[in-house]
């Protein structure tokens, strides 16, 4: 792959991307705090991430609450049958709206 194109598509500095694509993956990639922080800074917020399966949100009001990286995310099937994702935080003073797991709700309310 052309590195300039890869840079545009991946949003990583070309020099950094080159070092990742032409080297052996070492064990520290899986244990390094610095590498994890770089991934959450430069990679994971810019790509699609799986929060669950649509089959887990069968009926209106079904939800999945999941921590993804540093964020808690709420996936909900609405009455219009659309699945939406929200940051799991109240816009008033930042209370967490739901705790991890799946469930059923009538509406999204601050506790
Ligand atoms: S934090 Fe005040 S209403 Fe949610």
Characterise the protein shown here.
The chain has 111 residues and is α+β, with helices and mostly antiparallel strands. It folds into two domains: 44 residues, no CATH class; 51 residues, 3-layer Sandwich (Rieske Iron-sulfur Protein), CATH 2.102.10.10. It is built from three helices and four strands, in the order αααββββ. The chain has a four-stranded antiparallel beta sheet, with no helix packed on it. 10% of the residues are buried. FE2/S2 (inorganic) cluster binds next to loops.
Short account of what is shown:
The protein has 111 residues and is of the alpha+beta class. The chain is built from three helices and four strands, in the order αααββββ. It has two domains: 3-46, no CATH class; 54-104, Rieske [2Fe-2S] iron-sulphur domain (Rieske Iron-sulfur Protein), CATH 2.102.10.
Secondary structure elements and pairings:
Elements: H1 3-10, H2 14-21, H3 33-42, E1 62-68, E2 71-77, E3 83-87, E4 101-104
Antiparallel strand pairs: 1-2, 1-4, 2-3
Bound molecules: FE2/S2 (inorganic) cluster (FES).
